[in-house]
Amino acid sequence: MNRRPHAKVEEIRRRIDHPIVDADAHQLETVPVLLDYLREVGGNDMPDRFLAFLAHQRRTFEMTPAERLDTRTSMPVWWPIPTENTLDRATTQLPRLLYERMDELGLDFGIIYPGIGLQIITLPGMADEELRRASARAFNTCFADLFGEFSDRLTPTAVIPMHTPEEAVAELEYAVDVLGLKAAVFAGDVLRPVPRFAREHPELAREVLYPDCFGLDSPYDYDPVWAKCVELGVAPTSHSGPIGWGTRSSPTLHQYNQLGGFAEGGEALLKALWFGGVTRRFPTLNFGFLEGGAAWACSTYTRMLDHWKKRNAESIRHLDPARMDQQLFGELIDDYGHEKIQAYRDPLVQNSLWMPSPEELDDWRACEVSTAQELAELFVPRFFFGCEGDDRMNAIAFDERLNPFGARLRAMFGSDIGHFDVVDMREVLAETWELVDDELIDENDFADFAFGNAVRLHGGMNPDFFKGTVVEDAAARLLKEDA
Fold first, then answer.
1. What is the dihedral of CA 449, 450, 451, 456, to 10 degrees?
2. Are 427 and 421 in contact (CB under 8 A)?
3. 97, 160: one domain
4. Tens digit of pLDDT for each residue in 417-468?
5. Are 222 and 332 part of one and the same domain?
């Protein structure tokens, strides 16, 4: 098969002097093949259990609108993959076809994420531990086998469940040490029973849940997982869904649920990692947040610094009730207060507010910073943001005038090929270049977006990540320049 690229893609490739690395493409698993792997991993009954899980996930389509409203069951995605464009539909499922079309698509190297496999680890996730662990192992083995011969241009990601640190470490070690995988997608959150409710109403424990994002307030210590990532040279990436699953979702409109959903889940995970001091304790560990774009990241980064300035351990003492001049306050109430307010003069003046401990006053205590710039340095180099090419808000990641301390957030191009929003794979790179044509970013920004930041995310953790690939030399030069 020899098809020429889109004319705009040819123009772009003539203008740039760097490769294009796709930080987030998708492949749809062939279910019968996957079930064969699942049977080998978990036994003869495991395929039926997996199919039952998928059927339960899709049960919404069998419910009436009234039933969905009555149970507040979230409307999932329907028609999630391209079909009318039959060539793209096949490319979504056949690794060899994707490999052969890379030049046509204008891509040099692609990091490939699962399709159905994400359901193991994205909310609501797979609660059955035996099924979950077997499914992750089967997906990882299947992807390692199907993509192995195409490693110079494509690398698949391992699925890593995070219900416990032990489970995550075990699958990560197997994926890297046994299967030879070098990229991984981790659960961004896990639904857990609310402890008190589970104790008092065990029969309903699975009905009242909260999302655990691992870095903050988790019942488990996930530092062994982050340490294992550093040891193995793996950058944890995530496709987190809406963190308000089950409480802020629509039973009728999927797009209500999806719009901003990846950003919502990514923000929850990032804040847990940042507030929880993970980037302080693991200063070389890179994290990727995929499909949510960069606008939310710029907002979180900016607002976090603004809040720190007003409520850090020292500044917050300006709000200490003990610092109020009670005599002056009482006199002002006497002189200016309405009679209804004056009736409560004494309790207002006494102001018996709850007093936290000195440690509780500092919400950033795990970050161990004394300046806003130190706090920023725990964010900017460590967090990477997967952005679909048609999102114009990607430009603000590179706006040094807008972002505090002149930061350039590490936005990465992710084609999202294999999903419904890519109507024609041949146009993805051209859509991405529109930011340059519209003078929202320049060609240096584009080089970071479409090449450099993906290399930094993975190559920064594992210098050999791109060894043996068609982008090996360019990636090595970039990492050397950064060093």
1. 40
2. no
3. yes
4. 988 888 899 999 999 999 999 999 999 999 999 999 999 999 999 999 999 9
5. no
